[in-house]
């Protein structure tokens, strides 16, 4: 039965084996979450200069001074959070809608050139981001002159190939008969999509929403390139400013890092199932 | 009658195809504008001395320059070293953890999966900030406290060319295995129990089951993780940029960072485009080799 031998006779040796495994797993887990633990714990320290403090891994007291310090440090701390929310929300909504639409078309509809178009899309996932980064920057900043706008932050990510691929994978398991039956009843494609496909695809749409929001929220590179004033930056870019402008205040820096991570942690713990499910979609055959 | 039917069929297909194009329209426009056009443009820019007002055509000069640039080769070597040190190790580690999680109940599995995945949820910037402090060169820095415990003297982790690369590698070892663990676990759980039962009847040991059932079954997953891991690692930019800036003495300058610097620090767009195409070629070559060596007996 199973990979592990469950017929170990004595309870003692079974207990010893599982105990050993659990210990290994826990040690590894501790090493994995240590940076995050350290970040949160240190953010509750006093905002004194780093050279003067000795930081320990067990908090002696909890103070919110460093959080105050963080928000008072820059006039735009709240703007960074607001911008991140606006950008990530727009990218998420447009991706969920347009990727689901395109994924459905590629999975279940017949039209000329479908195979080639999808192959081109898939192939493009192999192209490193470095290839497109310079021309894309030139396009957005020099040609469209959109530097420092929400449009520049949102547009290039309104629908990504990976998401289309994810939806297509998921939808190939929806039986064609449902769609055919609807067609025979005289249902048009937009109606089929809205009343049949979307309700059946709630899971993949949720997964898509979460993964897209996470990627957009955590993105550093693109917002860093196309923003040039503090008030248009996202939290990730703002955080970098903070660190390089002020390397000596340790606890407020950790407070900033915690603030940028907390919305994602809350999302993760409330929607854990979708996060963990989403990771394996498309990667495992069967 | 027959003619009418084919006509109707044709009509139906046509109406379907109209909607098909409508459904992919936005995706297609976005793709053409933000992926296809930039890729084509990358080729054009790579042959130019790019200036916002009037570029000049310089042929293959940017490529030639890159090939004769010592720093380009060093960056390529650094990236290769980083990839070889992180990708196989991370995959092996993820495999071991996934195997070790197997004997437990689903609830326990989920808890561990969540814990290991947590660093992937936090942003790269906030993790970089934390790791900068773990690698603080002062005696009070966490990394120095740990090695001090083993009697090793104070290290300037990110500031010395002897340890900078290792510090980045260590950071990767401890923070980027969550995804691989989840993928491996999903693949492990999809192995049919009857294989193990048959092996049990033959009296197979745990290691034999691992060797003859698990490893062959997980080969496609391993290949997937290797290829995507190598592709990702070859584009690594953020950690090197935020943690070391490529220093000291270019010990941690990765190709991704070099291209970024050429483009956005020195505004050598032509050279950056040429190097990005060379990077794409290297990545394609590596993926191809991985498929050739490992993908021989995999059926898709």
State the gist of this model.
The complex is a heterodimer of chains A (286) and B (300). By secondary structure, chain A is an all-alpha fold.
What does this structure look like?
The complex is a heterodimer of chains A (286) and B (300). In chain A, 70% of the residues lie in helices and 0% in strands. With 286 residues, chain A is mainly alpha-helical. In chain A, helix 3 packs antiparallel against helix 12 and helix 7 packs antiparallel against helix 10. In chain B, a hairpin with a 6-residue loop joins strand 1 and strand 2. Chain B has a two-stranded antiparallel ribbon with strand order 1-2. Chain B is globular and about 75 Å long. Chain B has helices spanning 2-46, 61-68, 70-101, 106-121, 124-134, 142-149, 164-175, 178-189, 193-201, 206-217, 219-234, 238-244, 255-264, 269-294, and strands spanning 48-49, 56-57. The mean pLDDT of chain B is 87. At the A-B interface, helix 1, helix 3, helix 4, helix 5 and helix 9 of A face helix 1, helix 3, helix 4, helix 5 and helix 8 of B.
What is the topology?
The complex is a heterodimer of chains A (286) and B (300).
Chain A: H1 11-43, H2 65-73, H3 77-108, H4 114-124, H5 129-143, H6 150-154, H7 161-171, H8 176-184, H9 189-200, H10 202-218, H11 221-226, H12 235-245, H13 250-270, H14 272-280
Chain B: H1 2-46, E1 48-49, E2 56-57, H2 61-68, H3 70-101, H4 106-121, H5 124-134, H6 142-149, H7 164-175, H8 178-189, H9 193-201, H10 206-217, H11 219-234, H12 238-244, H13 255-264, H14 269-294
Antiparallel strand pairs in B: 1-2
Helix pairs in contact in B: 1-14, 2-14, 3-7, 3-8, 3-11, 4-8, 5-12, 11-14, 13-14
